[in-house]
Structure formats: structure tokens, C-alpha cells
User: Fold this.
Amino acid sequence: MENKNRDSQSNIICGRNPVLEAVRSGREIDRLLVAHGVSGGSVTAIIAKCNQRGILIKEVSPQKLDYYCAGANHQGVAVMFASQEYSTPEEILAVAKERGEQPFIIVCDEIEDPHNLGAIIRTAEACGVHGIIIPKRRSASLNATVAKSASGALEYMKVARVTNIPNTIDFLKSQGVWVFGADMDGEDYASVDFDMPCALVIGNEGKGIGTLTAKKCDRIVSLPMCGKINSLNASVAAGVLMYEALRKRRKL
Assistant:
């Protein structure tokens, strides 16, 4: 049966036949959830079809799936739908071109907290960012929590979900975009001129940006830390950098 309720995570359909039909329909699906130990029969067909379509498959405990499905009879499987359709890096660049502006892009390298991703989207929209890029795996997706945290900004912000962040950085650079990674061991962000086609890379809440991702960046920038802690919340750091980039781009 289909669960009509919106849970705290996303829109969801559960039950083997409804899930199989949803996957077959070609509708954009955020991820497939499969309960531990469930296999065989139509579940095998569902997993095979998801693999063909490149849909992310995540194994979860039966208890967690019960929670997601709000007690509905899920038969061990459910699919989650994004609160907004995903775009592509090319579409993000097209937005900048349509506006007659230099591209301004945020790359979130494994931001896992949906509240952080939502806050970044909200600030990005306020700063005139043309789009946000997230990885397909090890990242918060465009679920209901992200949409709520973004406070409506998701309706106006293109978000692209890509398989490989380093490869995507290479693509952006091939399009004339300068890529700036945020890390503790970089140059002072205030000394950097962001008045150019640019992308800001914001790393994971705990690990920061990945080693290969950092190597792909043109420059690494950092925020001064005068207290006893050595890092900021990812969305706070992103907000500071976005507004500095906006100030430089508008020559304020």
C-alpha cells in the first residue's frame, strides 16, 4: 500500500508492488530503502531495476523502515522521493548565462546533516548563488527536512546531484570556473578576490573536504579562528564565505 503521509524525512511509497511500479514509471526517486535480511522475489526485481536506473539503494533496520513508513505495511521496501527535482551542473551554468552573470556555485562535499544543507541553500539563494552541487552518496538529499530548513529557498535554487565531486570540479574548471575549497590550512579568505566565475567547496561536518577534492581546487581559503575551538558549523562557514564572495563580486 502507499503511505500518503509525509514523514520527517521525505515523501515515501512503501510496499513491494507500489515500489516496483514507482521504479518502473521512470519517476525521479531519491533512494530505495530495503530492510536488513529482505531478499528474493519482487525485491530482487526492484533492486535490479534500481541498479539499472542508478538509484541509490540503502539497507536499513526493519525498525527504521517502520518509522519511515509510519507503521504502514512496507513488506521490507520503500522508496523516497526528493522534495525538488535535481538539476545538472550544465543547467546551473545556464542559469548564470541567462542572468548575464559570472557563475557562482556552491559545492557541498558530503554535507550529511539535512539542517546544514537546508541552511546552506537558504543563504545561497539570498546571496545570488546560481546553484548547488551535492554528491549522490554520503550526503543529505533533498528531503523534507532540507526543504523545511531552507524555508522556501529550495523552490528557487537549482541543486545538482553528481556521482563524483572531483570529476565535477574538473568539468567546472573546463568551463572557466575557479574553484575555492574551504579548509583550516588555507589562505585568509578576506585576501581572496571572488569577482570571477567561482565555486566554493564546503566540506563534511567532521572531516572537511576530501583529500582528492582539495587537490582539485585552485585555491584553499580559511576563516580566522580566535577562540579555543578550531572549526565552525558547515552552514555558518559557508554563509560567511558566500557573503564575502558577494561583497567582492559587487565591489562593496
Notes: The domain at 11-81 is CATH 3.30.1330.30 (60s Ribosomal Protein L30; Chain: A;). The CA atoms of residues 35 and 65 lie 7 Å apart. The chain has a mean pLDDT of 89.
